[in-house]
Amino acid sequence: MNAGIERLRAACERDLGDPAGWPTPVGYPDSLALCIIDAIYAPGARHLTVDSIVERYRSYRAGQGGDADTDGAPELLANVEALGGPEQWAAQIGNRRPTSTRKDAPLRSVALTETAQAFVALGIRTTEDLRVIAGDPELAREAKRAWCAVPGQRSGFTWRFLLMLAELPGTDPTVAGYVAREVGDDAADTAGLLAAVAAAAGWHADALHQAIWRFEARRAQELPSSA
């Protein structure tokens, strides 16, 4: 275990940059709307860009007398509709980043709308609904298939980040894959290794978890925003 901790810490120091520059770990345990927004816009983007989009959504909803931090998928869809559709939502709240580098790739605001629609169709309206679904393997597979069918989400990176943002228990498979690659046989207790490295280095455990996810998202040959 000690050897594994040392190897994992060395890998993190090599790959993740100065911990002072890591984004503050985020989570939206009561807002499926914010989970969707962050998960769709995070891949390939600077965290400050995503933070700005989240804050614009919060500000707009507050102006309507709503609360973004308790919004579900229906409220997100209503917001898109109120602004005139995905194009207008991109102009006022999101941005015009496409889902991939393909010439005909739709905007991420289109993907955001389609994922919210798919969730509502499956009865996933809130983060609590998502937690219930995630606890049932068959329903979880159905929800993941619906998410990954949306342009830009095929690889599953954004699905896994969505679950992380919703603060579902367990270690994200993307992060677990990084740990396994770096420490091999010592990776049996991934959560324990991450906690031990964070404690030894004086890092915030959630910040370490998300920093690894972002590194893996950049590293992947097929980015989460592709296809």
UniProtKB/TrEMBL annotation:
Keyword terms of this UniProt record: Oxidoreductase, Peroxidase
Domain of life per record: Bacteria
Gene Ontology MF: a single term: peroxidase activity
Name used for this protein in its record: Heme peroxidase
Organism this protein belongs to: Mycolicibacterium mucogenicum DSM 44124
